[in-house]
Amino acid sequence: MSTAGVLVVEIIALCIIVFLILRKFISFKRTVWYAIATTWIGWVLCFAIVLMLPLDITNTDHQICLDANNQSEELCHEPATYVSPSAMVVQWKLLYWGTFVLSWVVFPILQSYWLAGDFTRGERMIRSLKENVILYIVMAVAGVVFILGLLIAKQLQKEQLMSLIMALANAYGLVLVVVLMGYGLVDIPRYLFKMGSRDSMMQFFQLKAVEYKDGLNKAQEDLTTVLKQVRLIDNKVREHDPYRIYVDKIVNKCPTEYESITEGDGDGELSYANLSNLHAKVKDLRHSAQRALILYEMLLKRAHEEEDIIASYNAPDRVIHWSFKRPRTYRYATLVNKLEWVWLVYLYPWAFRLLGLASAILSVMIVWCEITLPAHESLSPFASIITKSHMKGFGKQLFVFIPLAYMTLCSYTTLFKIRIFNYYRLVPHHMSDANSIMFSANYLCRLAAPLAYNFLAIISQGSAQSSFRKVMGEMDSFPFLSAFRTGFPILVIVVCLMAIFKVFTRMAACCCIKSLRYTIDESPNAIEMGIQILRESRQEKMAGAKNTNKSIKESIYARFSKLRGKPRDIEAQYNNDHAKDGATLKPINKDTPVNTSKSINNSAPPPLSTSSSSGKTPARSTAILSTPTVLTSSGRVDTASMAAKYGITKKGFGLFGKNNNNDSGDVELLPRDNV
Q1: Above 80 in pLDDT, residue 199?
Q2: How far apart are CA 323 and CA 308, in angstroms?
Q3: What is the number of other CB atoms lying within 10 angstroms of the CB of residue 88?
Q4: Distances from the Cα of 552 to the Cαs of 15, 88, 170, 476, in angstroms?
Q5: What confidence category does residue 667 fall into, taking pLDDT thresholds of 50, 70 and 90?
């Protein structure tokens, strides 16, 4: 395959992967189109920077080899993914300026537009532009003053203006990288080691249960408060009031809980500004309540599964006995159950411990590289491995990609652990809103290029010949930025130490600032509350499963007998109703012919539905009900078992499937004389 073909395949694969990741977090039906499109573009551009950087490094090595050997192609083999320097420069310009425009212009405007509570598109756009213009004016004034100061000090030439803008943007991104990555370098290994211990994970779920339940209660209380304000205004505004059209739009955005609220609350001020703010609150709090509920239910599900795994450690049959999962019934179910037990009990913990150890080693190496940047000689272990092993081509690309991807993971995951950003949260199962998705793409665009710049520095592969450095410009051209580039990353060790000793949490607790907490309350009282929450949740689910099975049986009898009274057991009900006729419910032999004629012995009870008088076999298979309905472990009717035991074909169960021949849904019940 040619070089162009390889790049096309990589780009197509990247686009598909980003689409699948995006599909996991949002619903394409509920999310606005501009949020989907811009987020997809932003994620593709950011991940493309991470993907293209190893290619640029190998291309630079090849170009250096050609320059050293008089452009000899025989001595310098061209990499499979080689791209000409001119084409690589064009790609880097598209990636950098694409992420720059998205992060500083497009996403801020679209986020403000989505959050605006105005009722028309034009009004929302005007409000969005006003909010962002104020920010841009402040930034422009500060930038002009700074640039004029440099011009006066003769440290800046006019032709260096664009390079200065890019360097300042990179400096801002470097601050974010050091702070966010520093915490992630500690948090990810700690989390992986915790995943390797069942007891630690169980305690983690118990603590999270308290946090998520409190968050759910708070979200529901806030939503109820706003709905009461809506109810007050809804009752106050009459049909022909000019504000009625706006109130109706707000009411249409309210969840179903609004119908149960009869009394309003609040000041009830009628103005366009107040209605706009109320409209924005309803949209925000409705989604926040839904998100909190999904997070809480997902946590309970994982916690109960963890309890089942721990309870099955010493199971003699070596099978995980799931409390709320359907048992496997296919051919190789026994083998799969055994393998599942081995994986979850033995292999799973050790796999995460090994991953935790590998991530801890990577974290130590990256921290060492950051704090030794000011040294005159390279002390980077990554640079030493690359130099001594003489890596070339795909091997070097893979080696470079691993630490780069890990640094990206550390920086990005931390962004959504800080509670000051808790308003923006990615939730799987299509529960992330448009604002959270755009926020993630916005900050990922701001982090991608500075992170790549910093990575080139720590592996000592940032030569001026690389296409990336040609596009990004040299921060070394400005002495104050050069010192900042090499000196500021040393602070990553300070951030790591603060994360290890949980200084952020202690400071936030002392200042009573919950929004700045990184971690959750781990006190014994919180653990006890979590245990109680999980115990109550399990009891409710078990009781719900029993009620579900009971309701299925009752619905079967109600469907078969069409009684308006209280449903009871099928067999007992039938025998009690027709005891005077001497009829009982018995199974039939499949080989015994069934009399389908209309004439029935008077000593037997009448059938619940009569067949055709033509004497032909009814369109629906005749069924006889004897013992209570056979149910599977999940509460569904086991039609296969009933068919084998009582001679009823699956086609005859109109209740359990779609019946194309009999819309009434009746099952014919024959007297014992016809058995």
Answers
A1: yes
A2: 7
A3: 22
A4: 46, 65, 63, 74
A5: very low
